[in-house]
Amino acid sequence: MSVVNAHTLNRQKLFKTALVDCVIVAAAGQLQRNSDVAYPFRQDSSFLYLTGCKIPDLVLVITQNKHFILLPKRESHRDIWEGSLPVAEIIAASGVDQVLSYQDGWELINQQVSKKRIGVIYPPKNFLGAFGMYTNPTRHVLFSSLKRRRPAEIVDIRPLIAKQRSIKSKQEIDIIKKAIDITAESLNAVMRGRYEAKFEYDLEHKLTYEFMHRGANGHAFSPIIASDKNAAIVHNINNSSPLKNAHMILFDIGAEVSGYAADVSRVYALQKPSSRQVQLFNVVRDVQQQIMQLARPGVTILELEQKTQTLLSSKLPALNLRKPIKHYYPHGVSHHLGLDVHDTADYHMPLQKNMVITIEPGLYIPEESIGIRIEDDILITDTAPKNLSANIPHDLLYYL
């Protein structure tokens, strides 16, 4: 199956389940970094899923008989400075029937929208307090523009596309596996050459090179390369501490290939570990292996989480840890993986064949300068779960 056919089938499937007259989806927009400099662009994942296009500010329109993309309105001088928009490439990547200018496209949308049911991906809040970040405004702009055109109803298709994206095609699974394999090869190269690294960021820079050298787009998310006490902070992305005298290092990393993410975590000893460090590592590894075997069709991620907390809690007395489990293990054990590292999905829905999830228990003890997380990427099958990242060594002592 070609990439074009895959995106076309994604659109057809979404339109069939949406039960609307028209689906309209906005691409992400380019955002200002400072002055006249933009942040590196990353396409909206659902737009990428439906089109394969990595160009900002496009608009996708899906009707019963026609799929087309609108080009953005933009200043003419940008064609000189940045090059003209590649219409032929947009058609080749997406498989749409037509690419229209901004003016012609909105004239056609006006005909499609008035007094009809329109499906859109509803815009998020302007600011996501849980993550301390502002959201891309293009969905808001599209939503406001469509409301002014007085459709009969605007239908939120987020649940539909989340459910659809959670079940991966063979092509998607192959791409995710490629991202994982690149991550494995790159991490091995970094650890083999670790003696040249003086700081955590030296390892990050080497990893970036290895990812791109092997054909990845780069990192799927900000990498976590945290030694000793830094690893006790779950999402410590500073990667700036010296490695001299460090005992252990935690990697939470993943390459991105064609928009799809790998996401693995490993902890390796940089010198002979203490018996305490080995004890804690073995507890996390044992729990991970037990939870991994439970990841089968019919089980929910919530059930995996409850079992993880039960298992880890049972280990605390022997570890001389007296506080509740969420003090030492503040995150969840699993999330979906795909075009987003924490991929969109219905997290109440039981696991099904061809979902890809992570299994990542951990223990974090800041007062002991220890943080341990072991994470693998798991394909749900009809029978036993398949560990897609099993080829990345788990052994704490592997590189000593």
Sum up the structure in keywords.
2 domains; 12 helices; Creatine Amidinohydrolase; about 35% helix; alpha+beta; six-stranded mixed β-sheet; about 400 residues; three-stranded antiparallel β-sheet; 21 strands; single chain; Creatine Amidinohydrolase, Chain A, domain 1
Short description:
The chain is α+β, with helices and mostly antiparallel strands and 400 residues long. 36% of the residues lie in helices and 18% in strands. It has helices spanning 3-18, 45-51, 77-82, 87-94, 102-113, 138-148, 158-166, 170-192, 200-213, 275-294, 301-315, 325-328, and strands at 22-26, 32-34, 37-38, 59-62, 67-70, 98-100, 117-120, 127-128, 133-134, 153-156, 218-219, 224-227, 248-253, 255-257, 260-261, 264-269, 356-359, 362-365, 370-373, 376-379, 386-387.
Overall, the morphology is globular
Largest beta sheet, briefly?
A: 6 strands, mixed
Secondary-structure-based class equals: alpha+beta
Number of domains: 2
The count of strands amounts to 21
Put simply, the count of helices is 12
Kindly provide the radius of gyration, computed on alpha-carbon positions and rounded to a whole number of angstroms.
23 Å
Low-confidence stretches: none
Q: Would you identify the CATH architecture of the largest domain?
A: Alpha-Beta Complex
CATH class group of the largest domain: Alpha Beta
Mean pLDDT: 96
CATH superfamily of the largest domain: Creatinase/methionine aminopeptidase superfamily
Quote the distance from N terminus to C terminus: 44 Å
Strands ordered across the widest β-sheet: 6-5-4-1-7-10
Strand content: 15-25%
